[in-house]
Write a structure and sequence with these properties.
This protein is α/β, with parallel strands linked by helices. Helices cover 41% and strands 12% of the residues. It has one domain: Rossmann fold, CATH 3.40.50. The site of nicotinamide-adenine-dinucleotide has 31 residues, from helix 1 and helix 4.
Length: 288
Amino acid sequence: MSERLTGKVALITGAARGQGRSHALRLAREGADIIAVDLCENIEVNEYPLANPEDLAETARLVKDLGRRVVTRQADVRERGALIEAVDTAVAELGGLDIVVANAGICPLGANVPPRAFVDAVSVDLVGVINTVDAAFAHLRAGAAIVATGSVAGLLPGGADNPQNGPGGAGYGHAKRGVARFVHDLALQLAPHSIRVNAVHPTNVNTGMLQSAPMYRIFRPDLENPTREDAEPAFPAMNPMPVGYVEPSDISDAVAFLVSDEARYVTGLQLKVDAGALLAATTSGAPG
Ligand SMILES: NC(=O)c1ccc[n+]([C@@H]2O[C@H](COP(=O)([O-])OP(=O)(O)OC[C@H]3O[C@@H](n4cnc5c(N)ncnc54)[C@H](O)[C@@H]3O)[C@@H](O)[C@H]2O)c1
């Protein structure tokens, strides 16, 4: 693999597992040193478990095995002050910051979750992205690149909200629409400073967020306690391409391109990695 990112430092949130870990390893393989941030605790309204400190340590071990430097921070993207401190001290250790991947997220789906799940989803999935950019801001120079993780849920015409998803699902959709808008508007403001801002919008990705009890219930509403085996045949329904989900590495490929110099004039892009999911939604008049 070419080392397109040699000498660069990348900040990645939600880096303990899933897509965040995959991005950390991909960017490290391309030559970048890594600041890996994760909450490493559960959030009450979010039924499935989030990452733990061992997951974050494992990401760090894997980055080091690739011969790159890594600094980890247990921090909550909802807490702007703590995040700024975490990023400042990590940047001081690694000597700069060139790349920001605002990826941390929760998806507290379910008709029976409490209404505050709306606010919690927005706090992590939208405010967390803004906080991450804020924490990075003082360190970014011309040539820097920001990528925020949205979702097909943020681009569905008419929104992704339906009663089955509950308030947390509505908050998730609201947040991801906000991410798309934030990226568009911030890209315009930062373009004169040669700092690029792009979004990736995945369809289902094979991570702990997808492989979870609340998600299985969304895909198999006909069953009371669906398992992974029950949900697997239902996952492909939203993707015109014949797959139920993409792998984290498929999203990392998009992120690696967006932060590389090969994308040096690409900014404000809403890059769908969705196996055609949004094509189907726009042709059929959009679910939800
Ligand atoms: N998995 C999917 O199907 C899918 C689809 C579209 C978009 N996404 C988005 O992709 C991103 C990555 O999710 P994933 O699929 O890797 O799921 P994941 O649950 O495996 O990873 C999310 C990570 O974010 C961390 N995190 C959660 N809240 C945090 C907080 N407040 N502060 C810091 N870290 C926090 C978790 O501990 C976890 O390590 C999310 O933004 C998600 O919304 C996922």
